Amino acid sequence: MKNILIIGAASAIICDVARLYAQEQSSFFLVARSQKKLKIISDDLIVRGAKSTKLFVMDALEFDKHEEMFSHCAEFFPDGVDIILIAHGSLPDQSLCDKNRYLSMKEFSVNCNSIISLSHISAEILEKQQYGTLAVLGSVAGLRGRKNNYIYGAAKSAVSTYLSGLRNRLANFPGIQILTVLPGFVSTPMTEKIPKNFLFSTTEKTAKDIVNGIKKKKDILYTPSFWRWIMLVVRAIPERLFKRMSI
Amino acid sequence: MVGQTSWGNFPKAIHAAEIPLHWKHHQIDFSEHRYYLPFGLGRSYGDSCLNDGYALLMCEHLNHYCSFDAATGRLHCEAGVTLNQILCDLTPLGWFLPVTPGTKYVTVGGAIANDVHGKNHHLAGSFGCYVLSLHLLRSDGNIYFCSPTNNSDLFAATIGGIGLTGVILSAELQLRKISSVFIDVEHIRFESINDFFSIDEESTERYEYTVAWLDSSAAGKHLGRGIYMRGNHAEQGGLLSNSSKSIAVPFEFPSFVLNNLFVKGFNALYYRKQWKKYLFSTVHYNSFFYPLDSILHWNRIYGKSGFLQYQCVVPFSNGMETINEILQQITASGMASFLTVFKKFGSIASPGLLSFPQPGYTLALDFRKSGEKLFTLFDILDAIVAAAGGRIYPAKDARMSAETFQNSYPQWHIFEQFVDDKFSSSFWRRVASTNNL
Predict the structure, then answer these.
(1) Cβ A12–B23 below 8 Å, yes or no?
(2) Are the C-beta atoms of B156 and B61 separated by less than 8 Å?
(3) Residue B249 pLDDT level (bands cut at 50, 70, 90)
(4) At residue B255, does pLDDT exceed 90?
(5) What is the largest CA-CA distance in chain B?
(6) Is residue B159 a contact partner of residue B167, using CB atoms and an 8 Å limit?
(7) Å between B273 CA and nearest CA of chain A
(8) CB-based contacts of B58: which residues, under 8 Å, 6+ apart?
(9) Are residues A40 and B64, on separate chains, in Cβ contact within 8 Å?
(10) What residues of B are in contact with residue A36 (Cβ under 8 Å)?
(11) Sheet strand arrangement including B143-146
(12) CA-based nearest residue to B263, from B220, B217, B306
């Protein structure tokens, strides 16, 4: 029975997270760009047990709308919000970004600036409430820049660093959790064009890990957990060597 | 190019593309490929869910519920929702599937497209009887609302239409009320196929679920002996399900494992497992309806070469003689079916135009794919079934001839008019081609 705000509610991973919370009769304030998708997700959550839902259409790049969205959310949840999930993002074609700096900057904005803005307001709310969880979907791609996705990676890296600082700032509030979720490869519409291999996980498994991570008050969650060790190795490779590698 | 096989691992198909559908309102570009076919979880056994050389529309992510009325049991959901998901979410509220096949790992879209049947066919009819309406996307880009009163022709063609009339995006189903997740089951051992008929006679009215397992090792006067299972939803036990854990077959067994000797030995032992002639028990619906689902990937025990199912239905008139003849032919061939299931279909007609069930007896057999001998046996069985006025189940077929199909489904010409120009399947190109005659 939690009050949950989801930004990027159409994200495949977060849909499955929401389904798990719906079984506990939670209430949802759902934010996404598409009204049609919001309606589909809301109907689904209601059948699965959600107590109530409220929909809000917004593009994460509409920075001026962020505060308005949060105030609508506050009206919907007069007794406070328990979990804020920020899940929107886009995985751009790096080769197009390489040819177009404006595209690079736009993608960086979607995957980083908008998240910093939304996290900023979230932190104010949690600090005022003195409790609650902010969970943000990052990516293991943020742990080392690779030629295939370094705009995406750079944005995710900045988000991780920002959240780490925020966590540090709010460490004195025992009721507040700032969770950085670092999924590896997950089969979703976003990764549709990437050939699948054994490293790919499912949205259901990732969702279970996230719900567990929130329950256990984790700071950083690798999902599946073996990515912690893969990335330990990847990060240990000297740059002199790494720059010549194709991974 | 993407490889995909059906549950029987035969035939194998290479697809030009697997196009995932995530949102029911998204447009599909139907100009990229010549033919498309919706694909759910691939639990059809043969080639009706394959589209060799062309494109598949992957429906498993169309898995959102649209609405559920807990007072009336009307469920509206997207076509990729699985029967398993419905059971998990709605049995706690006291609602059950009106008809269920032997696996819960199928999608609603697949259940409609194959107009699946279950152990309650004699009283309830097929899955299609409980489809109140559906939304069908065709290659003209339009979504058709189909029900017994709206686009009723297209509705009838889509139920049992093996995915050829378009993609089912969502459907409204009428669920069945239950007060317990348990089933009261009786197992009765019978000595011959004639005993089956007498037990069945006294059971059909009083038991919602009836089915028999036949011992494929038996011959002579024991031919067609087996265990009759009949059951009803229990009143007691509550609605909180205790889904048991499942195990998985981790890899494909070498093909010598399931040889005829092993299959016969297993069947003979299974028959003797039940010492008493009559056993009563109360079991969870999972173990009653889905015993094989607890072994994930059980199809792997047949090895890389795969296996073939043979399911036919023969009319009541001369039904006993026909079934006897089929069993005798199998015994004479020296081949043994690992799992033989026998059941009486009732007379409730499906709205589906190309539906498989018809009043009579249905027999399902499965054999490891073992070369020409098996295909010869199946051809002999086809002839017996055809002579009796019966037919073969497309969802389980990988080899029937165009002639057999067209003769046993004479309505296929009417059905053909509703097949979308841009939709086809490996099965359809095999059986609907007039060149093959």
Answers:
(1) no
(2) no
(3) confident
(4) no
(5) 62
(6) no
(7) 39
(8) B18, B19, B20, B21, B39
(9) yes
(10) 23, 25
(11) B65-69, B74-78, B167-174, B131-137, B143-146
(12) B217
Residue B183 CA to residue B176 CA, distance in Å, equals 14
pLDDT at A225 > cutoff 70: yes
Distance of CA B334 to the CA centre of its chain: 26
CB A31 within 8 A of CB A121: no
Q: What's phi and psi for A56, nearest 5 deg?
A: -140, 120
> Whole-angstrom Cα distance, residue B186 to residue B210?
10
Pair of tokens at residue A15: 């849909």
Q: Which residues of B touch A30 (CB under 8 A)?
A: none
pLDDT at B160: 98
Range B298-320 average pLDDT: 89
Nearest beta carbon to residue A47 from set B22, B23, B65: B65
Helices (H), chain A: 12-22, 35-47, 66-76, 94-99, 101-108, 114-129, 150-169, 203-215, 227-236, 239-242
Encode pLDDT of B58-75 as tens digits: 999 999 999 999 999 999
Residues of B in contact with A44 (CB under 8 A): 64-66
- Candidates B62, B65, B76, partner chain A, best to mutate (most A CBs within 10 A): B65
Q: What is the ipTM of this complex?
A: 0.91
Distance in angstroms (rounded) separating the CA atoms of residues B80 and B163? 13
H-state helical runs in B144-291: 152-158, 193-203, 260-273, 285-289
Out of A37, A40, A48, closest to residue B89 by CB: A48
**Confidence class of residue B300 from pLDDT cuts 50, 70 and 90?**
confident
User: What is the C-alpha separation between B148 and B132, in angstroms, rounded?
Assistant: 7
CA B187, B96, B161 angle in degrees (round to 5)?
95
- Closest Cβ–Cβ partner in A43, A189, A192 for B67: A43
Q: CB–CB of B20 and A192 under 8 A? A: yes
Q: Tell if the pTM clears 0.90, that is, is over it.
A: yes
Q: Does A65 touch chain B (CB under 8 A)?
A: no
Asked if B25 has any chain A CB less than 8 Å from its own CB, the reply is yes
Among B64, B68, B93, B95, most A C-beta atoms within 10 A, so best to mutate, is B64
Chain B contact for A40 (CB, 8 A cutoff): yes
Which chain B residues are Cβ-neighbours of A43 within 8 angstroms? Answer: 64-67
Could you give the dihedral angle defined by the CA atoms of residues A91, A92, A95 and A100, in that order, rounded to the nearest 10 degrees? -150
**Closest-approach residue (CA) in chain B for A203:** B61
